[in-house]
Amino acid sequence: MRGWIGSAGALAKCGLAVGALALGLAGFGSVAEAAQCGTSAAGFDTWKRQFAAEAQQRGIGSRGIQALMGTQYAYGTIKADRGQHSFKLSLDQFMAKRGAATIAAQGRSKKAQNAQLFAAIEQRYGVPAGPLIAIWGMETAFGNYMGNQNTLSAVATLAYDCRRPEFFQPHLMAALQLVDRGSLTASQRGAMHGEVGHTQFLPANIIRYGVDGNGDGRVDLNDRADALASTANFLRGHGWRPGAGYQPGQPNYAAIQGWNAASVYQQTIAIVGRQIDGG
After folding, report:
1. What are the tens digits of pLDDT across the range 225-245?
2. How far is 166 from 155, CA to CA, in rounded Å?
3. If you ran DSSP here, which 8-state letter would residue 201 be given?
4. pTM for this entry
């Protein structure tokens, strides 16, 4: 199943605008200066202590700091980060590998089964069911596989790793904020790059775009309604215009590009979403 669900979204999502990660973390750049990145597990514990000191200065409490210090270097995350090749496939190859036809077929059933939920989401955010269901299917096979990697260890490892620390350090700071709030636990598990929930949100995007979709007063991306509403809110935040098209060249395609920077992924979401919506 993992061959087609793709929590590979995080790698391509590194193309998201830096502004979407700021989230009020003013002065965060000094963290990168104080905490030196590394390319192996050897310096990880030292780096954690350096990062923890900076995190405390930025208001992270004891719960978040304790969770950070409990993280372990995630070898599986590094292996996954270095080994993602599907985005280099042709569109047809990518769609076949990700099971696009299966996602479309099952997606039409999901749309019918959850008609009231998708109608409410579209009324509030202007985003139709098709692209939301396509993302849901692509990311976690409709919630059937949301990952088994420790989220904080994954994000901390990538924040420490020299490849892209400037991208993942704000996500780690956001994750620690979520731990302080009680919205994320030290034992939370998700995808290899630290994404969580039905549609695989990175921590900073949970803070920025996470919404309560089921009316229980909390944001839980492991809840289907919350995850789908949050995904719609993300797309709206990236310029989605109600009623406009979302195929390549149409106004809302740019919002899909905001979700994932890989062209084959973007095109697949647009195609599968159209199939689900009946176009």
Report:
1. 999 999 999 999 999 999 999
2. 12
3. B
4. 0.87
